[in-house]
């Protein structure tokens, strides 16, 4: 099932397992059951500290399996077959359950161990979602470190009835004790902060006690990281305040236009940025959103940056490097049905719209590529473009035109997203040539109209 080179790498990683790990299987029947059992057998084959047992009487989901440290209750559950982007989550789960230490910050590890209460997490993911592994890996680690935390990672594509019952229309979707907890990419520290209600206040106090900086960079994307590196190299006291270190690069599937690097992925590039920044004496304050800038009152005085948590930072120079966000349509219904049918990532959320009707807004390369990808999943795709013609590369347009379940609408302005209060049910657009309004019945709207640099999202024509 696994390629020889991948099995060789897996064997090297799993050599770090300290304790015997049991793979407790609940396969069920059908092709996916055989696929899961083949995967578990190959894992056991390359790892002397791993054995396959079963069936798992406690798990009602099939196919699924529990990774458990022998003789303990320490374990992680996967409902589905964690390949694709989730293969790394599987490997890390095996290592952490097997006793190999995590690379997470010691402060975060201690905060996890100190959490009080009973926490049962369920995360719905898709194998094509690159934002999902970070959430899955964080919650898996938490369940290994704290016996009061349990986590099961669920492939939404294999458990469609659950997805429909819970109205999951975007991944990752996180539920805690049966209630919705979070949506989209969340870092380990974000999850901890949401569970530990006093953490934010303690963090604000710590930040406010920091001495003033010579240079404070607001924003942790590539530009902010570069600015911090260059100032720190000169021996200047430098800090970074970032809402999310890495910014939008974390959400980028593939990067092919970065000089000297033919191809990489967003999270991998961000990891390198983080290593580079921390190689210098830069004070990185992640998960800190700036809310106000108070300029210095006197020449040579200190500027003040007020954070959303109430803390304040002072600096002689402030570099604003706040990056960009997904451009939004800014039409009625868009915000109301965000993650309830309105989506911005066809790779992540596309599998949840299998055999459903969807629309793609935007006729550039991103929009046409999204429509092509979705056509292989959805029952029907309507692509809506404001201009009189598509702007995507000719090769993409030819591919799109060859698909029988795609309809292309040009000279159209989307005016409203319709819903029933819980999920998207349709979309309204205006024909700019005939000045007529049309309504389409559908279940999903994928917005692919580029980026903007305003915090609230700017409207495309």
UniProtKB/TrEMBL annotation:
Cofactor(s) in the UniProt record: FAD
GO biological-process terms attached to the record: response to reactive oxygen species
Pfam families: Pyr_redox_2, Thioredoxin_3
Lineage: superkingdom: Bacteria
Record-annotated FAD/NAD(P)-binding domain positions: 213-450
GO cellular component: cytosol; protein-containing complex
Subunit annotation: Homodimer.
Family of this protein: Belongs to the class-II pyridine nucleotide-disulfide oxidoreductase family.
The protein's name: Thioredoxin reductase
Species assigned in the record: Pseudaminobacter salicylatoxidans
Lineage of origin: Bacteria, Pseudomonadati, Pseudomonadota, Alphaproteobacteria, Hyphomicrobiales
């Amino acid at each position: 099932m696994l390629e020889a080179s991948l099995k060789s790498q897996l064997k090297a990683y799993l050599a770090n397992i300290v304790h015997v790990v049991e793979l407790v299987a609940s396969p069920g029947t059908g092709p996916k059951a055989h696929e899961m059992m083949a995967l578990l057998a190959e894992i056991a084959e390359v790892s002397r500290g791993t054995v396959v047992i079963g069936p798992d009487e406690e798990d009602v989901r099939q196919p699924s399996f529990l990774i458990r440290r022998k003789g303990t209750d320490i374990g992680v559950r996967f409902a589905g077959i964690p390949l694709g982007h989730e293969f790394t989550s599987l490997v890390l789960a095996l290592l952490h359950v097997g006793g190999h230490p995590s690379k997470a910050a010691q402060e975060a590890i201690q905060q996890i161990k100190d959490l009080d209460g009973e926490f049962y997490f369920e995360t719905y993911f898709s194998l094509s979602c690159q934002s999902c592994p970070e959430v899955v890996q964080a919650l898996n680690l938490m369940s290994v470190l704290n016996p009061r935390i349990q986590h099961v990672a669920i492939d939404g594509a294999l458990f469609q009835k659950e997805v429909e019952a819970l109205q999951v229309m975007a991944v990752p979707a996180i539920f805690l004790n049966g209630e919705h907890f979070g949506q989209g990419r969340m870092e380990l520290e974000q999850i901890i902060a949401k569970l530990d209600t006093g953490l934010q206040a303690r963090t604000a106090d710590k930040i406010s006690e920091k001495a003033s900086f010579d240079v404070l960079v607001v924003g942790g994307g590539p530009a902010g990281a570069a600015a911090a590196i260059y100032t720190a190299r000169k021996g200047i006291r430098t800090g970074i305040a970032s809402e999310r270190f890495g910014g939008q690069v974390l959400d980028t599937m593939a990067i092919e236009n970065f000089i000297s690097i033919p191809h990489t992925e967003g999270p991998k590039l961000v990891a390198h940025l983080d290593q580079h920044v921390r190689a210098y004496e830069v004070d990185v304050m992640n998960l800190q959103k700036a809310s106000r800038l108070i300029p210095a009152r006197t020449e040579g005085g200190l500027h003040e940056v007020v954070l959303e948590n109430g803390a304040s930072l002072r600096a002689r120079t402030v570099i604003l490097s706040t990056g960009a966000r997904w451009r939004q349509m800014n039409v009625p219904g868009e915000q109301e049905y965000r993650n309830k049918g309105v989506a911005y990532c066809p790779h992540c959320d596309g599998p949840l719209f299998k055999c459903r009707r969807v629309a793609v807004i935007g006729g550039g390369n991103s929009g046409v590529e999204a429509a092509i990808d979705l056509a292989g999943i959805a029952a029907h795709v309507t692509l809506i473009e404001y201009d009189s013609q598509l702007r995507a590369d000719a090769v993409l347009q030819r591919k799109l035109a060859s698909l029988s379940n795609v309809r292309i609408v040009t000279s159209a302005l989307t005016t409203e997203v319709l819903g029933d209060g819980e999920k998207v049910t349709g979309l309204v657009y205006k024909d700019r040539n005939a000045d007529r309004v049309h309504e389409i019945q559908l279940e999903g709207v994928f917005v692919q109209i580029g980026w903007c640099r305003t915090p609230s999202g700017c409207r495309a024509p």
